[in-house]
Amino acid sequence: MTDTKDREVLAMLNSLYQGWADSDAAAFVTSYTEDATSILPGSCSASRAATRDRMAAGFAGPLTGSQVRDEVHNVRQAEGGDGRVAAASADQPMRHQL
């Protein structure tokens, strides 16, 4: 994954993960388009605003102090366009342990 576009995708993911680490819903969705669809276990949000609101509620409740632990396996170009797809696996969000 040394392609410039691949690095851009990874930088975007790192920004999203930092927003989660900071419990900052607005930062979490910075790279989302207005009409982005976000799917997480048990929920589907059909816009950037809906995702931001869902994450803000999560950060104020059950996701307080949690962190994302994803492992990106690869980034590849979507067929027929400029889009990129990142394949990753994740553990469930975990609360920080002191």
Q: How would you describe this structure to a colleague?
A:
The protein has helices at residues 4-21, 25-28, 48-59; strands at 38-40, 43-45, 66-67, 70-77, 84-90, 94-95. By secondary structure, it is an alpha+beta fold. It has one domain (4-95): Nuclear Transport Factor 2, Chain: A (Roll). The strands form three sheets. A two-stranded antiparallel sheet has the order 1-2. It has a two-stranded antiparallel sheet with strand order 3-6. A hairpin with a 2-residue loop joins β1 (38-40) and β2. The N and C termini lie far apart (35 Å).
The portion of residues forming beta strands comes to 25-35%
Mean pLDDT: 81
What's the CATH class label?
Answer: Alpha Beta
**What overall form do the CA principal axes indicate?**
globular
Radius of gyration over C-alpha positions, nearest whole angstrom: 14 Å
Second rung of CATH, namely the architecture = Roll
Any low-confidence stretches, pLDDT <50, length ≥5?
94-98
Characterize the largest beta sheet: strand count, sense, and whether it forms a barrel. Answer: 2 strands, antiparallel
Strand count: 6
CATH topology-level fold name: Nuclear Transport Factor 2, Chain: A
- The secondary structure category is alpha+beta
Largest beta sheet: what is the strand line-up?
Answer: 1-2
Number of helices: 3
Amount of helix: 25-40%
Order of helices and strands: HHEEHEEEE
Distance between the termini: 35 Å
Number of domains: 1
